[in-house]
């Protein structure tokens, strides 16, 4: 099925007026820059999806989209070993993967002087 310019304009006009279309991001958009602009022009950023024949374009667009996860040529492919979480109003932090563990830990450094004699100047080594 061929999509005409009139069809694209009608869908774009409907999307701008319809709350469901804005929030759910179910869109037919032509042009990479317009895709990125429209996908980032909302308050949510849980996930996004891209379908393309050019895997390099998929990576470039994925890097430009402000969403916690981007699916390229697939959808809902998740793993407990990969971090999952949103951006903007779609949440803070990540679930699963090592990233989620970092939210519950704090890094701390502790230095010990193992010598029997006290340090004369703590700002020099030796």
Question: Would you mind describing this structure in some detail?
Answer:
The chain has 126 residues and is an alpha+beta fold. It has a domain at 31-102: Aldehyde Dehydrogenase, Chain A, domain 2. The chain is built from 5 helices and 4 strands, in the order H-H-H-E-E-H-E-E-H. Strands 1-4 form a two-stranded antiparallel ribbon. The chain has a two-stranded parallel sheet with strand order 2-3. Helix 4 (55-64) links the parallel strand 2 and strand 3. The longest helix is centred in the first third of the chain and has 13 residues, at 5-17. It is elongated and about 85 Å long. It starts with a helix and ends in a 24-residue tail after the last helix. The relative contact order is 0.10. The mean pLDDT is 77.
Envelope shape? elongated
CATH topology of one domain: Aldehyde Dehydrogenase, Chain A, domain 2
CATH homologous superfamily grouping of one domain: Aldehyde Dehydrogenase, Chain A, domain 2
What is the CATH top level name of one domain? Alpha Beta
Which sheet architecture does the biggest sheet show?
Answer: 2 strands, antiparallel
What kind of oligomer do you see? single chain
Average pLDDT figure:
77
> Helix proportion of residues, in percent?
25-40%
Rg of Cα set: 24 Å
Q: In sequence order, what are the helices and strands, one letter per element?
A: HHHEEHEEH
Counting DSSP H or I runs of 4 or more residues, the number of helices is 5
């Amino acid at each position: 099925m061929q999509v005409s310019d009139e069809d694209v304009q009608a869908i774009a006009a409907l999307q701008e007026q319809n709350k469901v279309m804005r929030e759910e991001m179910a869109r037919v958009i032509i042009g990479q820059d317009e895709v990125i602009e429209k996908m980032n022009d909302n308050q949510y950023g849980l996930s996004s999806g891209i379908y393309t024949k050019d895997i390099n374009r998929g990576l470039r667009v994925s890097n430009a989209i402000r969403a916690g996860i981007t699916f390229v040529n697939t959808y809902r492919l998740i793993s407990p070993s990969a971090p999952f979480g949103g951006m903007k109003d779609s949440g803070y932090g990540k679930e699963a993967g090592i990233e989620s563990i970092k939210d519950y830990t704090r890094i701390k450094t502790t230095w010990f002087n193992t010598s029997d004699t006290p340090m004369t100047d703590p700002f020099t080594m030796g």
